[in-house]
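just leaving the lab so this will be short. what follows is a protein written twice so to speak, once as letters and once as C-alpha coordinates for the fold. can you read through it and tell me how you think this chain folds. thanks a lot i owe you, the record is right below.

___
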Amino acid sequence: MEVSVWRGSGDQGGYETFTVPARDNQTVLDVVSWIQQELDPSLTYRYACRVGMCGSCAMMVNGQPRWTCRTHVKKVLQEDRLSIAPLRNLPVIRDLAADMDPFFEKWVKAGGVHKPGRSRDEPIQQVSPEESGRVEANKAIECINCAVCYAACDTVAASPDYLGPAALQRVWTLYNDVKVADRAAVLATATGPGGCMSCHSQGSCSKFCPNELDPLSAVAGLKRAAARAFFKGKA
Protein backbone atom coordinates (compact mmCIF):
# COMPACT_ATOMS: atom_id res chain seq x y z
CA MET A 1 0.00 0.00 0.00
CA GLU A 2 1.00 3.63 -0.53
CA VAL A 3 1.35 5.71 2.62
CA SER A 4 1.66 9.49 2.45
CA VAL A 5 3.32 10.90 5.57
CA TRP A 6 3.60 14.57 6.40
CA ARG A 7 7.23 15.66 6.84
CA GLY A 8 8.53 18.98 8.08
CA SER A 9 8.29 21.38 11.00
CA GLY A 10 6.26 24.46 11.80
CA ASP A 11 4.39 25.66 8.72
CA GLN A 12 6.97 24.25 6.34
CA GLY A 13 6.68 20.75 4.94
CA GLY A 14 4.84 18.38 2.65
CA TYR A 15 3.84 14.77 2.14
CA GLU A 16 6.33 12.01 1.36
CA THR A 17 5.08 8.72 -0.02
CA PHE A 18 6.29 5.30 1.14
CA THR A 19 5.39 1.79 0.02
CA VAL A 20 4.53 -0.33 3.05
CA PRO A 21 3.66 -4.04 3.08
CA ALA A 22 0.14 -4.88 4.26
CA ARG A 23 -0.11 -7.29 7.17
CA ASP A 24 -2.87 -8.90 9.21
CA ASN A 25 -4.16 -6.89 12.19
CA GLN A 26 -1.93 -3.98 11.22
CA THR A 27 -2.55 -0.66 12.98
CA VAL A 28 -1.68 2.79 11.67
CA LEU A 29 0.94 3.06 14.41
CA ASP A 30 2.46 -0.20 13.12
CA VAL A 31 2.75 1.44 9.70
CA VAL A 32 4.44 4.55 11.09
CA SER A 33 6.83 2.45 13.17
CA TRP A 34 7.69 0.25 10.18
CA ILE A 35 8.56 3.29 8.07
CA GLN A 36 10.77 4.68 10.83
CA GLN A 37 12.49 1.36 11.50
CA GLU A 38 12.86 0.09 7.94
CA LEU A 39 12.93 3.07 5.60
CA ASP A 40 13.64 6.39 7.32
CA PRO A 41 14.98 6.54 10.91
CA SER A 42 14.61 10.33 10.89
CA LEU A 43 10.79 10.13 10.91
CA THR A 44 9.56 11.82 14.09
CA TYR A 45 6.39 10.78 15.90
CA ARG A 46 5.10 10.21 19.43
CA TYR A 47 3.70 7.16 21.18
CA ALA A 48 3.96 5.37 24.52
CA CYS A 49 1.59 2.63 25.64
CA ARG A 50 0.40 1.22 22.27
CA VAL A 51 -2.84 -0.02 23.90
CA GLY A 52 -5.11 3.04 23.95
CA MET A 53 -4.29 4.20 27.47
CA CYS A 54 -2.14 7.31 26.98
CA GLY A 55 -3.43 8.96 23.80
CA SER A 56 0.02 10.20 22.82
CA CYS A 57 -0.07 8.47 19.41
CA ALA A 58 -2.98 10.58 18.13
CA MET A 59 -2.56 11.75 14.52
CA MET A 60 -4.67 12.72 11.53
CA VAL A 61 -5.46 9.60 9.50
CA ASN A 62 -7.04 10.27 6.10
CA GLY A 63 -8.02 13.69 7.42
CA GLN A 64 -9.59 12.49 10.69
CA PRO A 65 -8.08 12.55 14.20
CA ARG A 66 -7.52 9.09 15.63
CA TRP A 67 -5.46 7.10 18.11
CA THR A 68 -3.16 5.34 15.68
CA CYS A 69 -2.54 2.41 18.04
CA ARG A 70 -6.25 1.54 18.01
CA THR A 71 -6.93 2.26 14.35
CA HIS A 72 -6.64 -0.80 12.12
CA VAL A 73 -5.45 -0.09 8.62
CA LYS A 74 -8.15 -2.20 6.98
CA LYS A 75 -10.84 0.06 8.45
CA VAL A 76 -9.41 3.30 7.06
CA LEU A 77 -7.56 2.27 3.90
CA GLN A 78 -8.87 4.07 0.80
CA GLU A 79 -8.00 2.52 -2.58
CA ASP A 80 -4.91 0.97 -1.05
CA ARG A 81 -3.74 4.38 0.17
CA LEU A 82 -3.27 5.97 3.56
CA SER A 83 -2.55 9.56 4.58
CA ILE A 84 -0.99 10.33 7.96
CA ALA A 85 -0.37 13.80 9.40
CA PRO A 86 0.13 15.51 12.78
CA LEU A 87 -2.92 16.56 14.78
CA ARG A 88 -4.77 19.54 13.37
CA ASN A 89 -5.11 22.85 15.26
CA LEU A 90 -1.73 22.46 16.97
CA PRO A 91 1.77 23.67 16.01
CA VAL A 92 4.00 21.01 14.48
CA ILE A 93 7.27 20.24 16.22
CA ARG A 94 8.42 17.94 13.47
CA ASP A 95 6.80 15.44 11.11
CA LEU A 96 3.97 13.70 13.00
CA ALA A 97 4.70 15.16 16.44
CA ALA A 98 2.42 18.08 17.34
CA ASP A 99 3.17 20.60 20.07
CA MET A 100 0.64 19.97 22.88
CA ASP A 101 1.46 23.14 24.85
CA PRO A 102 -1.40 25.28 23.47
CA PHE A 103 -3.87 22.50 24.29
CA PHE A 104 -2.74 22.23 27.92
CA GLU A 105 -2.40 26.00 28.30
CA LYS A 106 -6.09 26.32 27.46
CA TRP A 107 -6.93 23.54 29.89
CA VAL A 108 -5.23 25.59 32.62
CA LYS A 109 -6.79 28.87 31.40
CA ALA A 110 -10.22 27.28 31.64
CA GLY A 111 -9.64 26.71 35.35
CA GLY A 112 -9.23 22.97 35.15
CA VAL A 113 -7.53 22.73 38.56
CA HIS A 114 -9.68 21.41 41.41
CA LYS A 115 -10.03 23.92 44.26
CA PRO A 116 -11.54 22.13 47.24
CA GLY A 117 -14.05 23.70 49.61
CA ARG A 118 -12.46 22.12 52.68
CA SER A 119 -8.96 22.09 54.09
CA ARG A 120 -6.97 18.95 54.80
CA ASP A 121 -7.71 19.45 58.51
CA GLU A 122 -11.45 19.05 58.01
CA PRO A 123 -13.29 15.75 57.61
CA ILE A 124 -13.48 14.40 54.06
CA GLN A 125 -16.76 15.38 52.48
CA GLN A 126 -18.93 12.38 51.72
CA VAL A 127 -20.50 12.31 48.26
CA SER A 128 -23.02 9.70 47.19
CA PRO A 129 -22.27 8.02 43.84
CA GLU A 130 -25.97 8.50 43.03
CA GLU A 131 -25.90 12.26 43.66
CA SER A 132 -26.97 13.98 40.40
CA GLY A 133 -23.89 16.22 40.16
CA ARG A 134 -21.58 13.29 40.79
CA VAL A 135 -23.29 11.25 38.10
CA GLU A 136 -22.85 14.12 35.65
CA ALA A 137 -19.21 14.68 36.63
CA ASN A 138 -18.40 10.99 36.28
CA LYS A 139 -19.30 11.06 32.59
CA ALA A 140 -16.05 12.80 31.67
CA ILE A 141 -13.49 11.45 34.11
CA GLU A 142 -12.11 9.03 31.50
CA CYS A 143 -10.73 11.92 29.44
CA ILE A 144 -6.97 11.40 29.00
CA ASN A 145 -6.25 14.71 27.22
CA CYS A 146 -5.25 13.13 23.93
CA ALA A 147 -6.46 16.26 22.05
CA VAL A 148 -8.39 14.27 19.44
CA CYS A 149 -11.50 16.37 20.16
CA TYR A 150 -9.39 19.53 19.92
CA ALA A 151 -8.08 18.49 16.51
CA ALA A 152 -11.59 17.62 15.36
CA CYS A 153 -13.06 20.97 16.40
CA ASP A 154 -13.77 23.43 13.57
CA THR A 155 -14.40 26.20 16.12
CA VAL A 156 -10.82 25.85 17.33
CA ALA A 157 -9.65 25.99 13.71
CA ALA A 158 -11.56 29.22 13.08
CA SER A 159 -11.11 30.81 16.53
CA PRO A 160 -7.65 30.22 18.04
CA ASP A 161 -8.80 31.73 21.37
CA TYR A 162 -11.53 29.13 21.85
CA LEU A 163 -10.73 26.99 24.90
CA GLY A 164 -11.77 23.80 23.15
CA PRO A 165 -13.97 20.83 24.05
CA ALA A 166 -11.58 19.01 26.40
CA ALA A 167 -10.94 22.06 28.58
CA LEU A 168 -14.64 22.93 28.76
CA GLN A 169 -15.57 19.34 29.51
CA ARG A 170 -13.18 19.51 32.46
CA VAL A 171 -14.89 22.73 33.60
CA TRP A 172 -18.28 21.00 33.43
CA THR A 173 -16.91 18.21 35.61
CA LEU A 174 -15.73 20.72 38.22
CA TYR A 175 -18.99 22.66 38.05
CA ASN A 176 -20.87 19.50 39.01
CA ASP A 177 -18.45 18.55 41.79
CA VAL A 178 -19.98 19.49 45.17
CA LYS A 179 -16.48 19.52 46.68
CA VAL A 180 -15.47 22.51 44.58
CA ALA A 181 -15.37 25.69 46.66
CA ASP A 182 -16.70 28.29 44.21
CA ARG A 183 -18.86 26.87 41.43
CA ALA A 184 -19.91 30.36 40.34
CA ALA A 185 -16.28 31.22 39.62
CA VAL A 186 -15.92 28.02 37.61
CA LEU A 187 -18.93 28.99 35.50
CA ALA A 188 -17.64 32.53 35.05
CA THR A 189 -14.42 31.20 33.54
CA ALA A 190 -16.36 28.92 31.21
CA THR A 191 -18.47 31.79 29.90
CA GLY A 192 -15.61 34.27 29.48
CA PRO A 193 -13.73 35.08 26.26
CA GLY A 194 -13.18 31.94 24.20
CA GLY A 195 -15.55 30.00 26.45
CA CYS A 196 -18.57 27.78 25.91
CA MET A 197 -20.62 30.42 24.10
CA SER A 198 -18.18 30.22 21.19
CA CYS A 199 -19.10 26.58 20.52
CA HIS A 200 -21.07 26.09 17.28
CA SER A 201 -22.47 22.73 18.44
CA GLN A 202 -21.30 20.82 15.37
CA GLY A 203 -20.45 17.76 17.47
CA SER A 204 -17.16 16.64 15.93
CA CYS A 205 -15.64 16.48 19.42
CA SER A 206 -18.11 13.82 20.55
CA LYS A 207 -18.05 12.01 17.21
CA PHE A 208 -14.30 11.42 17.26
CA CYS A 209 -13.61 10.93 20.99
CA PRO A 210 -11.86 7.53 21.19
CA ASN A 211 -13.20 6.99 24.73
CA GLU A 212 -16.75 7.68 23.54
CA LEU A 213 -17.14 10.69 25.82
CA ASP A 214 -19.52 13.52 24.98
CA PRO A 215 -17.82 16.93 25.23
CA LEU A 216 -20.64 18.52 23.22
CA SER A 217 -23.15 17.70 25.97
CA ALA A 218 -20.77 19.10 28.57
CA VAL A 219 -20.50 22.39 26.68
CA ALA A 220 -24.28 22.47 26.28
CA GLY A 221 -24.60 21.93 30.04
CA LEU A 222 -22.37 24.94 30.68
CA LYS A 223 -24.53 27.04 28.35
CA ARG A 224 -27.69 26.01 30.21
CA ALA A 225 -26.09 26.73 33.57
CA ALA A 226 -24.98 30.16 32.34
CA ALA A 227 -28.51 30.93 31.11
CA ARG A 228 -30.01 29.95 34.46
CA ALA A 229 -27.49 32.09 36.31
CA PHE A 230 -28.26 35.05 34.06
CA PHE A 231 -32.00 34.91 34.61
CA LYS A 232 -31.46 34.53 38.36
CA GLY A 233 -29.29 37.64 38.32
CA LYS A 234 -26.15 35.73 39.28
CA ALA A 235 -24.18 36.22 36.07
